[in-house]
Amino acid sequence: MSARVVVLISGTGSNMAALMEAAKDPGYGAEIVAVGTDREGTRGVEVARAAGVPTFVVPFRSFSDRSAWDTAMSDRIAEHEPDLVVSAGFMRILGPAVIGRHQAVNIHPALLPSFPGAHAVRDALAHGVRITGTTIHFLDEGVDSGPIIDQVAVPVEDGDDESSLHERIKVVERRMLVDTVGRLAREGWSIDGRHVRFGRTDMKENR
Ligand code: GRF
Q1: Is 182 inside a domain boundary?
Q2: What does the alpha-carbon distance between residue 142 and residue 164 come to, in Å, rounded to a whole number?
Q3: Looking at residue 75, which CATH number applies to its domain?
Q4: Atom 8 of ligand 1: nearest residue by CA position
Q5: For 2-34, what is each residue's pLDDT tens digit?
Q6: CB burial string 155-167: b at 16+ within 10 A, e below
Q7: 177 annotated ligand-binding residue
Q8: Is residue 14 part of a domain?
Q9: In terms of residue numbers, what domain contains 180?
Q10: Residue 44: is its pLDDT beyond 60?
Q11: Per the annotation, does 176 bind a ligand?
Q12: What is the SS3 assignment for 172?
């Protein structure tokens, strides 16, 4: 039986599209059961709808405060009974209502713990690093601070700007995301402090 995955996005959704493509193979082990977003009219949501994947929108501005939005988001996610939530270009911080109820991973376009936050590629360039990359990690209460599952390095090239560097990061990011979600789905996982290991068979036991 495939693991049920809910993907959260805020924009283009190229990582989501890569997951949807991988999930067409029944051997992949994960099924994208819904795509959620915090804003209407994103390209990624249109792509998901066109592919017949159920979508939901929980607009941040429709709620009186962050905690009410977080609770609504958690409830909408729960309707799809996910084994795993994947934040793939979701640009809001998920709070305790989501984190406490769902197992969730996030991709971040830098080698954490360097350059957390919303401008990771810009910040890495400004700092002058020669190597940056991408990280997939479990979500915790902090910002880009949860246990790391995998990382891939991407060299910075002379003449790179934010857009050229981010595009090269996204190429390796999509591969890493597909590989990692597939492994989590097929093998399960355990988390011991900051260390994540593959190899639990019943994902429900991880909760
Ligand atoms: C990715 O680089 C992700 O790491 C970051 O936002 C980008 C999303 O790209 N958080 P896309 O929407 O999947 O194309």
Answers
A1: yes
A2: 29
A3: 3.40.50.170
A4: 89
A5: 999 999 999 999 999 999 999 999 999 999 999
A6: ebeeebeeeebbe
A7: no
A8: yes
A9: 3-108+135-152+173-201
A10: yes
A11: no
A12: helix
Q: Which of 108, 119, 137, 166 is catalytic?
A: 108
Q: What are phi and psi of 85, to 5 degrees?
A: -105, 135
CA distance 3 to 26: 11
- Tell me if 159 is assigned to some domain: no
pTM above 0.85, yes or no: yes
Q: How do strand 3-9 and strand 30-37 relate by DSSP bridges?
A: parallel
**What is the rounded (10 degree) CA torsion for 70, 142, 55, 171?**
170
Find the 15 Cα to ligand 1 centroid distance in Å: 7
Structure confidence by residue, pLDDT tens digits, 99-144: 999 999 999 999 999 999 999 999 999 999 999 999 999 999 999 9
The structural domain count of the chain equals: 1
As a whole number of angstroms, the distance between CA 25 and CA 83 comes to: 18
**Residue list, ligand 1 pocket, CB within 6 Å:** 9, 11-15, 44, 88-89, 107-109, 170, 173
Interior CA angle at 186 toward 181 and 190, to 5°? Answer: 75
pLDDT digits (tens, 9 = 90+) for 64-108: 999 999 999 999 999 999 999 999 999 999 999 999 999 999 999
Of all protein residues, the one whose alpha carbon is nearest to atom 9 of ligand 1 is 89
**Does 181 fall in a domain?**
yes
